[in-house]
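Recall the central idea of this unit: under ordinary conditions, the amino acid sequence of a chain determines the structure it adopts. In this exercise we apply that idea directly, starting from the sequence alone.
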Amino acid sequence: MVGWGTIGKIRMNQDYSQRLRSLMQRCDIPSFRALAQQAEVSDWQIRQLRQGNLGQMRLEILQRISAALQLSLVELLSQLDQITTAPVAANPPDCLEPNSLEQQLAVLQQEYERSQTQLTEQPQTLQHQFQRSSLDTLESWLLYWPAAVFAVSQNPEFPANRLIPLVKPVEQLLAQWGVEAIASVGATVPYDPQLHQLIKGTANPGDPVRIRNPGYQHNGALLHRAKVEGE
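Accordingly, the structure predicted from this sequence is:
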């Protein structure tokens, strides 16, 4: 014998399938399997949605399905919420499930809004962490470089070699970022037009040239060509 709760579920299942088909038609998605493929979810997940088992589905899965239907998650939940108002068998109050669809939708919407807030705040948090890590590396440079510049401005004969250790933190930071010099200033290297910019003299590929300005690569990608002098 079929109970009241079972009848309510059957009617609700039919409403979900019909509503999903309507949403799929707007996006030219021909079948539930095609929806699963486009959303990159399993057929079982689509079946769960058709049966109204939202409480058993992860938020990520629902977001993928809503994206495939060209809807936001809130819009998808709103569309499904219309189903809850569709006429079904008149269930007595004591036959209603404690975890109703409306409750599931409310929980999912709260989770969605919370995840959106986290996504909005995440770039700011990551940027702050990145800046703080960089400042920690540059700490000695921040503390002593302004004093060194002041000393040079007051005494033009201030020995330049005393400034060299102060720029080490900058070099360390560039190394942490994967920035590498193509070659040291003054070094003689074979001329490579892809890596070198000839600013004086002439040179053919492979000819020895002298590095005038180093040039840089970032994780193997060229940032600036090194300026070189030929014969």
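The chain is about 55% helix and 10% strand.
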